[in-house]
Amino acid sequence: MASRKPSSTRTAAHARRRPSSAAASAAPKNAPAPAADQPLASKPPVTESPTERLDRLVQTAVSQRVGNLSPIALGLALADWGWHLAASPGRQMELAALAARLTREALNPPPEGEGIGARDADPRFRHEDWAQWPFSLLRSSFRSTQSFWQEAACLRGVSEHNTDLVDFFARQWLGMLTPANWPLTNPVVLKDIVASRGLHLAQGAMNWLADITGQPTAADIANAGRFQVGKDVAVTPGKVVYRNNLIELIRYAPQTPKAHPEPLLIVPSWIMKYYILDLSPHNSMARYLVGQGHTVYMMSWRNPDENDRDLTLDDYLKHGVLDAMAAAGENSGAQRIHAAGYCLGGTLLAMAAAALARRDGVAGWRHLPALQSLSLLAGQVDFSEPGELGRFIDAGQVSLLERLTRGQGFLTGKQMAGSFQFLHSRDLVWTRQMREYLMGEREQPNDLMAWNADTTRLPARMHHEYLVALYLKNAFANGRYLIDGQPISLSDMQMPVFMVGTERDHVSPWRSVYKLHKLYQGEITFALTSGGHNAGIISEPGHRNRNYRIATRPAAGPWQSASTWYAGATQREGSWWPAWQQWLAERSSPPVKATPIPESSTLCDAPGTYVMKKYVE
Known about the structure:
Blueprint: H1 9-17, H2 19-23, H3 50-63, H4 71-86, H5 89-107, H6 135-152, H7 160-177, H8 187-196, H9 199-213, H10 218-224, E1 238-243, E2 247-252, E3 258-259, E4 264-267, H11 285-291, E5 296-301, H12 313-332, E6 336-342, H13 344-357, E7 370-377, H14 395-408, E8 410-411, H15 413-423, H16 425-438, H17 447-453, E9 458-459, H18 460-472, E10 482-483, E11 486-487, E12 497-502, H19 510-513, H20 516-519, E13 524-529, E14 547-553, H21 562-568, E15 570-573, H22 577-586, E16 592-593, E17 604-605
Parallel strand pairs: 4-5, 4-6, 6-7, 7-12, 12-13
Antiparallel strand pairs: 1-2, 1-17, 2-5, 3-16, 8-9, 10-11, 13-14, 14-15
Helix pairs in contact: 3-14, 4-7, 5-6, 6-7, 9-16, 12-13, 12-18, 14-18
């Protein structure tokens, strides 16, 4: 890969003026870390033959018409289901009887008002107007159709993956056809049209036109200036104290007279910008931890471009996590540090911890500060049951994504966001479009939504490697993931672990997160919090309607299934943050006088330069 220039003139100036702070955090004890103007790719670039290029162009052109999903994978799933159904006349008779029964029930909906209300599982049908005929008939017919396809998707002999795909896309199709999506069959929309004399419907049409043309409405323009990075979000005071071509490392300024000597290094996922952990001041995890007397370092991944196509997963582990550990140890002078990882950042951190725990460690990084503890926030280490996201990850889909990203050099944030929207299509697509396009209610952004729209890219090679190694082969959990040619295993670690799962997580299901209990015999404290993948983690003290369960398994303790753990874990009201902070404090030395950030190591003010990089997609 060709050498890259620094991200900005200011970065170049710092690199010339302060070579020791830009690259020597890991030296002389460790191999020199690459500076901001040096390439990182550790393996030769992947070559492509003319025939492979032809295949790539054809397959990606077709996939773009179906949302960058593999039509081959879906076609195979439908064929698997269809052939098994055709060869099962008994099952056909069962489904025909079920269809007849559900039709009778749909034609005789429950009494007016029954089943309508806040407890309805589908928020689109909660309004009391759905209890009135003929809308009650439409609602009950739709529910019956849902029930039929939920049962019809299950056929003996069809692979579990194909069953999941058929069931999932049947739900997607029904989600589009629901009577709630059409003005003439939605009583709430009809009433609103009459009450507003069509004004809201006209405004909704303007919202729709703005979305498909990319031309924002006046309200969109007014909201665009809200939640700016460094002004409204990511505002916890701090300094960038280290930079290479992959990460910036932020050290937050102390906010208490005393602080624990062992700093905390936080590794966010590389598929998101770090400031989800430093949102607005009231819900910033970084600010909360600093306010509790912890010295906090935060990694900020650089937003890659086509020149980074050959960066590998090993590059992210070594020049991301390990370089950050070296820099945090050098900057703080600490011999031991705590480390926490969120989502895939937690997976990568666990891989680094397992590699460092080997007898020979990692070549070039043998004198890093020791890990005092490990915290994994919605971070999986076993991908055998990755939840709904696994429906999009099979050999065919991974091959398609590899061809797509090879041509671009990266996976765009927009392409990645499309898959996540599928997981929540009812809430993120259809319910939102009903409000915005049929009722003219433009969604008001908040800090979490603004962060979610601030997408990042993934380098082509690294993206392919992590999908194959983790999702397809589950190599880390099986002890087959190699670093420096040697396998790594979680069983080599010895530090205490704090884990967090969230009850409604579609990205890292909590039962999948819990699987660490089978792979690691050390002490594990597991907390299961209400909420989803993002909102469950960003659960600051004082947040309403929050609760969590927590229990600790001692080192070498007996195995408990996830269900048994759930039944026995203590439930507490409020945020899980104080419990985690107390856990960290108990495993830290007594607080000492807090020291300011050394001026000699300062490159620029937080939030740094890498987080500001955006692309038009």
